[in-house]
Amino acid sequence: MKLESNHPKFGLQLLRRKSATGSWIExxxxxxxxxxxxxxxxxxxxxxxxxxVKIFGRFDRLGVSFKDYGDGILGxxxxxxxxxxxxxxxxxxxxxxxxxxxxxxxxxNTVMNTITVGPNPTLLVSxxxxxxxxxxxxxxxxxxxxxxxxxxxxxxxxxxxxxxGQIYYPGNVAGFxxxxxxxxxxxxxxxxxxxxxxxYQ
Length: 201
What we know:
Layout: H1 2-6, E1 9-17, E2 25-28, E3 31-33, H2 44-48, E4 61-68, H3 100-104, E5 110-117, E6 122-125, E7 131-138, E8 144-148, H4 154-157, E9 160-162, E10 167-168, E11 182-185, E12 191-199
């Protein structure tokens, strides 16, 4: 602390907020000193975590800012004329994990319909670029044929076959949610299809 107090320095504030317009709250402020050379400061541990990964929600924000302790900040101040050569690089990485089952349970974004399907291709849901989850259940007594596309042709030419009572939903392992329209048909007779669709806000 004596070294920090007697030598030129500035603070690198690490801030976070819960929305794009919320108030910034300081999470940490490591002290950066001019050591005359490039050096590395780990910001994750201990400044941003307590030995665990920091979890961010969808609207959370992470920000950085300079804090002047009286010696100026990058590119300014009265230390020496060489301040114009000060450079700060920040590197990081992130991983996104979507819980598709949880998103399907968000009532504000979920639509559930029961549709009767016959031999002619029937549109179950239109194309949806914001689709986060979908689920199909064959509630009838006849095999269901269904597929993706702008028309019902794939329900005939390249169908997924679903026996009576079967449920289908893309799991977390697949990590891919089709956004195309979904069509369905049966060979003869009719069947009842339950379709559940969730969308991002």
